[in-house]
Amino acid sequence: MAGDASAELRKATNAFRNRDLASARELDGDDDTLDALNLEIANAATRLELSAEERALEFHHVLIARSLERISDNAVDIGEQAEFLMTAELREFSDASEPRTRSLLPEPRSPGSED
Fold first, then answer.
1. Overall domain count for the chain
2. pTM (predicted TM-score)
3. pLDDT single digits (tens) 63-101
């Protein structure tokens, strides 16, 4: 995951430096891999039956995964700025504040609901 985030950041800075529009636009799709891994790690942490010490370690893993995923999101932002420099059109590849996928955890049931 760290290698993927590093590669995306390198690709973003190269796209910006070299005014490479195709590479800049690829970043949004590249980000999907880290988004999925981050979600997978977070969901796995909530399903595990662990001791308090093990759970604390697992949540450190969640924080690390989230930080790496944010690096990837920032790489996408750099790609957006690179595209703006080349086209003078401001568009967001995707809204990083809005998740593209829903959590794999079940939705909470309302009282009195039947399955």
1. 1
2. 0.74
3. 999 999 999 999 999 999 999 999 888 777 665 555 443
Q: Give the C-alpha separation, 6 to 33, whole Å.
A: 13
* Structural domain includes residue 93: no
How far is Cα of residue 19 from the mean position of the Cα atoms in its chain?
Answer: 24
Element (H, E) at 13: helix 2-18
The C-alpha angle with vertex 78 and arms to 74 and 81, in degrees rounded to 5, equals 140
Choose among 95, 105, 88: nearest CA to 31. 95
Q: What is the dihedral of CA 64, 66, 70, 76, to 10 degrees?
A: 120
Q: State the residue range of the domain holding 31.
A: 2-87
